[in-house]
């Protein structure tokens, strides 16, 4: 990532030299407030009101939902991203998370960032509980190992205490931190940072993530997060140039003006619908066999 000397006007970017240095060391910053809590829920409703949700690629919501694309260019967010990545930035991934009640997402490292440099914005939208929802291991973006690789070695990464003990074996000063993020707030973190989420409520929890990199990076989407044995999607992810210029032209860029629900529906029919249809057929056949066996 670029040198601190590269920044001349920190007031414009809203990230101090100290803040940038802190990000380099711990791998995350925030939370920062973007919406009031009621505004966050209203924003979520607008997203769901304009999306053929069942047909969308889960990692490419910005290619279909104009609200997600506009969010990715929000100056409050983007000013911090450009401080870290530089003036030329693309958005290549976006995901709306709907986490079921009383469900934990074990600690992990986002798979794609093992091969590319980038940052993630995680914005809390609904039913996010401060100090209970989002947890990180500061400095873990500098570790060679990922939680997924520890799991392959027999470490229970679903247990936070065990995960913290494993991190201490890599760096004895490591600790697990529960972030004080709530609805309407976001954090920014290095894509390699160890992190985990959980929903401690009796209701669904909603959030959205945005993934940014430099145009010089050739991005692709992992089919799974099984580090180090990843498999990759053949199709190129749809990207947005959200700041600066793209002098490399190695990624599939679309213009924000071309985003529409109808085009999203077409993309979904061609790329997502067949897969989901097959899954549903397979599920129905399996259920039918089980019922027949039980009867």
Element layout with pairings:
Layout (H helix, E strand, L loop, with lengths): L9 H4 L3 H10 L1 E6 L3 H13 L16 H7 L2 H11 L3 E11 L3 E6 L9 E9 L7 E3 L10 H6 L7 H11 L6 E2 L6 E6 L4 E5 L5 E9 L24 E6 L8 E2 L7 H11 L1 H22 L1
Parallel strand pairs: 10-11
Antiparallel strand pairs: 1-7, 2-9, 2-10, 3-8, 4-7, 4-9, 5-6, 5-8
Describe it:
The chain has 295 residues and is α+β, with helices and mostly antiparallel strands. The protein has one domain: Sandwich (Jelly Rolls), CATH 2.60.120. Helix content is 32%, strand content 22%. It contains nine helices and eleven strands. It has helices spanning 10-13, 17-26, 37-49, 66-72, 75-85, 147-152, 160-170, 261-271, 273-294; strands at 28-33, 89-99, 103-108, 118-126, 134-136, 177-178, 185-190, 195-199, 205-213, 238-243, 252-253. The model is unreliable at 1-13 (pLDDT under 50).
